Amino acid sequence: MRTNSQAMQTALLSIIPGGGQFKNGQKFKAGLFFTAFLIFLVEMLLFGGQALYNFVTLGSVPMEDNSLFLLIEGTLQVIVTVIFIIFWVLNIKDAYQVRQSIEKGFPVAVTRKEFFKKLYEDGFAYLLTIPAYLVMIVAIIFPVMVTLFMAFTNYDFRHIPPANLIDWIGFSNFTNIFTLSSYRDTFVKVFSWTVIWTVLATTLQITLGILTAVVANQKFVKFRRVFGVIFLLPWAVPAFITIMSFSNMFNDTAGAINTQVIPLLNNLPFVDIGNIAWKTDPFWTKTAIILIQGWLGFPYIYVMVSGILQSISEDLYEAAKMDGCGRVGIFFRVILPLMKPSLANAAIFSFYWKWEELIGPMLYLTRPQNYTVSIALKQFLDASSTSNWGAMFAMSVVSLLPVLIIFFIFQKYIVEGISTTGLK
Predict the structure, then answer these.
(1) Nearest 10 degrees: CA dihedral of 319, 325, 327, 333?
(2) Strand partners, 36
(3) Looking at the whole model, is its pTM more than 0.90?
(4) Separation of alpha carbons 169 and 78, rounded Å
(5) pLDDT reported for residue 414
(6) Which of 243, 46, 71 shows the shortest CA–CA distance to 152?
(7) CA 406, 411, 416, 418 torsion: positive or negative?
(8) Contact at 8 Å (CB) between 398 and 409?
(9) Do residues 230 and 299 lie in contact, with contact meaning Cβ atoms separated by under 8 Å?
(10) Of 253, 252, 318, which Cα lies nearest the Cα of 285?
(11) Beta bridge partners of 157
(12) According to the model, what pLDDT value does residue 387 have?
């Protein structure tokens, strides 16, 4: 009980960072923590407090206060404040745990030399990751938070800083997505089509990748390396060129599909296919872009599955044959279970890449009714043909939900897939 009482008193002293460390005899660490506290305190007095206030109000005088800049500066200050709060909590936890170690008779780092030695031994890995975390905060977390906050404002053509101020409007932009018919009909249509296109394109590329890898790695197949090079061509050729080539091939009047392939198929018995409106009919346009993305994405699956197939021991195949498995049985009972983690991993990442794909659909899908979420958000216009940025940011946040749901549900497969070298 005395140990816990002393540790609690020390933790209370650390409400002012460095106080608990000083009581524990760690004067150098206490100085560092207190210096960090003073730096944050000065920053709050000079800049941070005003930045948080402006973040709440978003300005009060048009032409003098730029609400957009105030929101961005406030977001940055929110991040700095959160980082300090995390440091403050860890400072209290550190003082509590060190005091417990002292009461139990364990040695602790007191001098500066001992502090740096312990830091090197126990915290060197954390020091190496600090730059990566800083880059992640600036390049990922900061822009995402600005986008999220903008979704709660009335930033549109009527409220363009600095001439006009932006105001917080709560969840209005989110509710408008589902209550205003002009937003709801378009967003639901685009969102549902994006789900369909992502799932089908991912499924197609995985199916093609597995099929080509299994066939090309059979022993009776000659010139397997040649086939491997051919299957990698969609990866080698820039996607822009490939998509433009396919766009010409799927042309309604002069494309190779309608002028050469379909007439060739019509020579077969009981086959009579007319020209297909690949570019003008929404159904066939969407079918074409799914086929194109399947072609562009299957080499990734092919390479991954080929690596797994080549690493499977021949003893497993022989054992499966002795158990009465044919080629199909070997695939489903030996090959598929072994590549399940890596395949699930590849499917998750392929879903991410397809969901956020912009260049491919933008080059091929030229009609608004065929747009995917990424293109629709890029060219979002409201009923008055004037930009409504707040609504666009709200739709961006909502469109992230499938990605976040997939990540949280299948997160274990990502780790498992990486650990089995499924992700190259």
Answers:
(1) -80
(2) none
(3) no
(4) 19
(5) 65
(6) 71
(7) positive
(8) no
(9) no
(10) 252
(11) none
(12) 64
Residues of the chain where predicted confidence (pLDDT) is lower than 50? 381-385, 421-424
Among residues 189, 231, 196, the alpha carbon closest in space to that of 210 is found at 231
Look at residue 360 in the predicted model and tell me its pLDDT: 60
Residue with tokens 């745990």: 97
Which CA distances in Å does 189 have to 186, 194, 372, 375? 5, 9, 9, 13
Distance CA 278, CA 255 (A): 9
Position 76 scores a pLDDT of 95
Pairwise CA distance, residues 424 & 422, whole Å: 6
Phi, psi of 153 (to 5 degrees): -120, 170
pLDDT at 71: 94
Q: Is-cis flag, bond preceding 162, omega within 30?
A: yes
- The candidate with the shortest Cα–Cα distance to 278, out of 298, 259, 265, 296, is 259
Angle between helix 172-179 and helix 181-216 axes, rounded to 10 deg: 80
Show contacts of 252-258: CB within 8 Å, 24+ apart: 252/276, 252/277, 252/278, 252/279, 252/280
Cα distance between residue 413 and residue 422, in whole Å: 10
The pLDDT score that the predictor gives to residue 382 is: 44
Contacts of 278 (CB under 8 A, 6+ apart): 250, 251, 252, 255, 257, 258, 284, 285, 288
